[in-house]
């Protein structure tokens, strides 16, 4: 059973999401929060697997709340936003969120997102996610490249670049002429070496370390440049 906490200051929004999620046999909405402070407190007490977090809330905004939740509880956070080009979403990914959804997403996409994030993956499939990262990655202050990158082999760096470009394990396998299992092993080993939780964090680290640059996002671009 996937335990979900809903955090949104609009009661009707919470009710809508709850109605959708509670209809699934493997999902249970265990708590609701009307602001970021409540979300953090409830995460401590009910220990949800996934937190659906509105990015704009009173008292403590979703960005700050997501950072705190990831730090203290290790729950996985999906950011909810009204706009598909919300500049705060990139900051949320940097804070440790595993992905985001726009609030007018289809019910089945919401359910799929919760399941994907609950099993430890990141919600990077929607093209709008890559668009957001490409749009705002160049606007943030970039720290010096992490020395942890020195631990990666050439193959692992190649795989990390393809992850950052939004390719799935199967697509990486096809691109590099590997088996899907080998591609998955490479991704898992990279995350272990770099001490990141999921693919979303790999994407952020790849941008911040200048392994890939904004604007170089489409699969076609990756294929042309490799």
TrEMBL record:
Residues 3-118 form the Response regulatory domain. Residues 145-210 form the HTH luxR-type domain. One of its GO terms (biological process) is regulation of DNA-templated transcription. GO terms for molecular function: DNA binding. The keyword Transmembrane does not apply. It comes from the Bacteria. Keywords: DNA-binding, Phosphoprotein, Transcription, Transcription regulation. The modification 4-aspartylphosphate is found at residue 54. It holds the Pfam family GerE. InterPro entries: CheY-like_superfamily, NreC/VraR/RcsB-like_REC, Sig_transdc_resp-reg_C-effctor, Sig_transdc_resp-reg_receiver, Tscrpt_reg_LuxR_C, WalR-like. PANTHER family: TRANSCRIPTIONAL REGULATORY PROTEIN NARL-RELATED, TWO-COMPONENT RESPONSE REGULATOR. This is LuxR family transcriptional regulator.
């Amino acid at each position: 059973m996937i335990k979900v906490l809903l955090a949104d200051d609009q009661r009707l929004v919470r009710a809508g999401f709850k109605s959708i999620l509670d209809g699934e046999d493997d999902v249970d909405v265990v708590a609701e929060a009307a602001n970021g402070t409540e979300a953090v407190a409830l995460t401590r007490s009910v220990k949800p697997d996934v937190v659906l977090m509105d990015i704009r809330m009173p008292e403590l905004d979703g960005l700050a709340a997501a950072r705190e939740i990831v730090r203290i509880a290790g729950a996985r956070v999906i950011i909810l936003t009204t706009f598909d080009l919300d500049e705060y979403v990139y900051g949320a990914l940097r804070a440790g969120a595993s992905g985001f959804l726009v609030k007018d997403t289809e019910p089945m996409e919401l359910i799929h997102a919760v399941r994907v994030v609950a099993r430890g993956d990141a919600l990077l499939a929607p093209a709008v996610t890559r668009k957001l990262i490409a749009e705002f990655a160049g606007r943030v202050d970039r720290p010096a490249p992490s020395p942890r990158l020195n631990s990666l082999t050439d193959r692992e760096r190649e795989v990390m670049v393809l992850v950052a470009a939004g390719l799935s394990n199967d697509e990486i396998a096809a691109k590099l002429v590997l088996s899907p299992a080998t591609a998955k092993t490479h991704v898992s080993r990279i995350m272990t070496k770099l001490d990141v939780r999921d693919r979303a964090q790999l994407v952020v680290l790849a941008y911040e370390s200048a392994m890939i640059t904004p604007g170089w996002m489409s699969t076609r671009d990756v294929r042309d440049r490799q």
